[in-house]
Amino acid sequence: MNADHGRTGGGDTGGYTRAIARRPGANLGRGLTTSRLDPPDHGLALAQFDGYVRALENCGLTVTVLDPLPEHPDAHFVEDTAVIVPELAVIARPGADSRRDEARHVAPVLARHRDLVRIEAPGILDGGDVLLAGRRALIGISERTNEAGARQLGAALAAHGYDWRPVPVAAGLHLKSSVNAVGNDLLLMTAEFADLEALAGYDRIVVDEKEANACNTLLVNGRLLTPAGYPETRRRLDALAREIVELDTSEFRKMDGGLSCLSLRF
To answer: What is residue 235's predicted lDDT score, i.e. its pLDDT?
Structure first.
């Protein structure tokens, strides 16, 4: 069913205390993108990144900001390097060859907080394809995450009592480009995902095609962080009676990125 006025989604998707982010490098425009927009402006990207970090801090998170990796222009999209739950951190094996080494740089940081498990070949997995909602993981099967990677992650999570299911990604770079949780049983999504059997059992807010980028909205400790500039989606989110923080993501959108991509939250 479509959810609208008055729904809260049955609770939050967990209480976060920490986040890891990586500052964008001056060469961020050399990263991978399918966008036909103008190249990103580094100065503006830094300002937007700093605003994002402040928003996480205002949600009660302690944010560790890592230095840029000049050899990896996509490295500020740090979410793709790992999947974190209270019991462990799974170090990803990104699907793009040029990004695969990014995970090695994040692993020592996460090892301070969690036991580590790693996705191994032939599996590939991007964290942007993994949506955690309560004790369930929805794992997108996309150009960046294959079935072998999904099975490895699923097994690692199932060992700690999590349920998981694969979700075919027919539109968008990652699952979370198009689907995100705004409550434990309430998903914000594009129309391409609205009738998927893999998402049965969830209530859903279906976003208009012209506001598809608004699907990359984050629920962080009761607040919704959402991209600025999508008034219809904002109206739908207002009905959930949560505090909403709009953030400009224009420069990251030019590189196929959004709010979820810019941090690992745990």
So the answer is: 98
Amino acid at site 232: E
- Amino acid type, 224: L
Cα atoms in the Cβ-side hemisphere of radius 13 Å centred on 31:
29
Buried b (16+ CB within 10 A) or exposed e, 226-236: bbeebeebbeb
Half-sphere exposure of 171 (CA within 13 A, CB side): 13
Paired sense of beta strands 136-141 and 163-168, if any:
parallel
**What six digits make up the tokens of 261?**
């991509």
Active site residue 174: yes
From the list 59, 72, 174, 215, the catalytic residue is 174
Which one from 72, 76, 215, 261 is the annotated catalytic residue? 261
Residue range 60-78: average pLDDT? 98
Classify the C-alpha dihedral 70-68-266-143 as positive or negative.
negative
> What does the pLDDT average to over 158-164?
98
In this structure, what token pair is assigned to residue 247? 């953030």
Compute the radius of gyration of the chain from its Cα atoms: 17
**Model pLDDT for residues 172-226, shown as the tens digit of each residue:** 899 999 999 998 799 999 999 999 999 999 999 999 999 999 999 999 999 999 9
CA distance linking residue 54 with residue 260, whole number of Å = 15
Q: Is 261 a catalytic residue?
A: yes
- Superfamily (CATH) of domain 18-265: L-arginine/glycine Amidinotransferase; Chain A (3.75.10.10)
pLDDT at 5 > cutoff 70: no
